[in-house]
Amino acid sequence: MSATKRVRVPDLLEKKRAGEKITMLTAYDYTMARLVDEAGIDSILVGDSLGNVMLGYSTTLPVTLDDMIHHAKAVRRGTERALLVVDMPFLTYEVSPEKALENAGRIMREAEVDAVKLEGGAEMAPVVKRMTETGIPVIGHLGMTPQSVHVFGGYRVQGRGAEAAERLIEDALSLQEAGAFAVVLEMVPASLARRVTETLTIPTIGIGAGPDCDGQVLVLQDMLGMYEDLQPRFVKQYANLGEVIRKAVGSYIEEVKSGVFPSEQHTYGD
Ligand code: KIV
What we know:
Elements: H1 9-18, E1 22-26, H2 30-39, E2 43-46, H3 50-53, H4 65-78, E3 83-87, H5 97-111, E4 115-119, H6 125-133, E5 138-143, H7 149-152, H8 162-178, E6 182-186, H9 190-199, E7 204-207, E8 215-218, H10 220-223, H11 241-258
Parallel strand pairs: 1-2, 1-8, 2-3, 3-4, 4-5, 5-6, 6-7, 7-8
Helix pairs in contact: 2-4, 4-5, 5-6, 6-8, 8-9
């Protein structure tokens, strides 16, 4: 049995109460999950952004429940401490609360994760209620919700203007009322994210939502400089692993071609 104290759902609520920031990053495989977990992150999200980052789709819409479960199982094996959350992919929760419950149940049972996340506001409240009443912790996701990218006409800031801002606050309150234990706010003005954060008793986790959310989340490959197809303004690059990888692979190619590798050190004798 490990001595590591696992982060649980109530710990995030406690962090908000204590004014302590919550840290979250995505991961989609065992190796990365292990590194991120060992670094001390509070929560790991198996985001459906894996459709872009891992599978090379241009949106998250083609991602299936089986894709999510496959990656979540690998991340579970690499995660000892962090609270593990998995995205419900497009059309696995919108059709009916019963269908949503069945699909969330599959994620929880098969990947043994701690919580699920889904996109949408007040219209998703019955789904969130059904799940939380059944014992499945849920995180909501508002603002620029990538599964609705075609409705928005691209990846654009949401919640600008008084009416849109009020609607987003109402949506956040509906999710809280339905039992969600946190809400991700993506690409919304910082002033609106602050209002939502002050209004809710549950934590907000921002991505492109300014500094006043209760926590922050980024896509791991974005902040490590490994995924270069989309480069949103809200991403801070903490490393340039894309360049490190290209250089390392280039050196390997050169050394194999020139016969420098494998040397005696990397070769077995009789
Ligand atoms: O899919 C994802 O990675 C997400 C985060 C960007 C919040 O939903």
